[in-house]
Amino acid sequence: MKITRYRPGPGIMVSAAFIGPGTVTACTLAGANFGFALIWALVFATVTTIILQSVAVRVALVSRLGLAEAMMQTISSPPLRWMAALLLIAALALGNAAYEAGNISGAVLGLEAFSAELAGSRALVICGIALLAGALILLSKPSWVERILIAMVLLMCLSFLATFLITKPDFGAIFSGVIPSIPEGGLLTAIALIGTTIVPYNLFLHAASARERWTEESGLAEAQTDSAISIGLGGLISITILSTAAASLFGSNREITSAVDMAEQLNPLFGSFASATLGAGFSAAGLTSAITAPLATGYIVQEIFGGRGKQSSRMPFKIGVILVILSGTFGALLNYKPVEIIFVAQIANGLLLPVIAFFLIKLANDSALLGHHVNGWRGNVAGAAILLVTSLLGIRLIARALGWWP
Predict the structure, then answer these.
(1) Residue from 331, 304, 318 nearest 129 by CA
(2) Cβ neighbour number for residue 221 with a 10 Å cutoff
(3) CA nearest 26: which of 252, 352, 245?
(4) pLDDT, tens digit, for every residue of 160-216?
(5) Is the pLDDT of residue 34 over 70?
(6) What number is the average pLDDT over the span 265-283?
(7) What is the pLDDT of residues 104-114, one digit of tens each?
(8) What is the CA radius of gyration of the chain?
(9) By the 8 A CB rule, do 156 and 281 touch?
(10) How far, in Å, CA of 194 to CA of 356, rounded?
(11) How far, CA to CA in Å, does 76 sit from each of 59, 81, 405?
(12) Which of 134, 126, 136 lies closest to 104 in space, CA to CA?
């Protein structure tokens, strides 16, 4: 039996994208406010992400289409196709705008951990981060920048993992948190944990990146192995962040409002350097995610309106990128706490997820598109379960907001 060495692929970028400010914030708040009770949400989200990203990669490599292109081709009526395209772009653009505001705000939080004086120049810092993200996407080849940012995010993740081991959390409590339950007041946090992991735009970004990395259908097995390993590692890191917060902050009645507060998790390991260490990782995570959100939106707009292999296709891409960066910048400039913006972005993603999951399940069963690579009964059972759970969470959130559900 031939053993091939695993080479990290686009799946690493998916993990780097979802281990951003939203993950650090949502996991920290979940652990600090509810202990280990919501670990099940991260386990569910990680498994769901692996399944959904696997379908997205399968569609991209077998059909040689972008995910947005494939979705549009399943609709035969031109008017319905245009309506679906506009709804898809509107939903993802709004979600990515909220997410982008959280990414930029998260990067600012990380920088403020280095110097409290930056708080007085917050608007200037926000605009600077937005310009940097736009320049990296539109004016340069991002491969070397992505490697640097991934390395910094992984450094942050290793810091949380080391702190997790030092705090010696109760492993019995961790395993008990795998059993699904929603503590009082924990619904929004559960949906945020799911939303911060299963990021809808990552499906489109991953499909486009995988199609560029593997130019033939024969690369499907390697692509799906890459997804499982990379995303599984990302889910494990999220669980360690939540567990570290639960072990060190749960019951302390401390309000987390900045990266400096979160850095107290790292004090057992880094002492007085904790704020600077978390600040570097948090800033890198924010900038990485601030790049991927508009990048994915650009791909979606290009696939729907610009096509591929055309000179004119670059303009829709640029428009999608610029709109998300501008709207995210405006959102970050509003007078809300950055942590609140990040948290709302995760909830928006959680509500958008059932719609994208429905489209993916439909594509996975399209024999005209995938041939013998269509879902088997196990895949359909898993897809139906994912769609049911995510829909119920979204319905309960909306009903509770309207006062229809206690």
Answers:
(1) 331
(2) 10
(3) 245
(4) 777 777 777 778 888 888 888 888 888 888 887 887 788 777 888 888 888 878 877
(5) yes
(6) 64
(7) 887 887 777 66
(8) 20
(9) yes
(10) 14
(11) 18, 7, 38
(12) 126
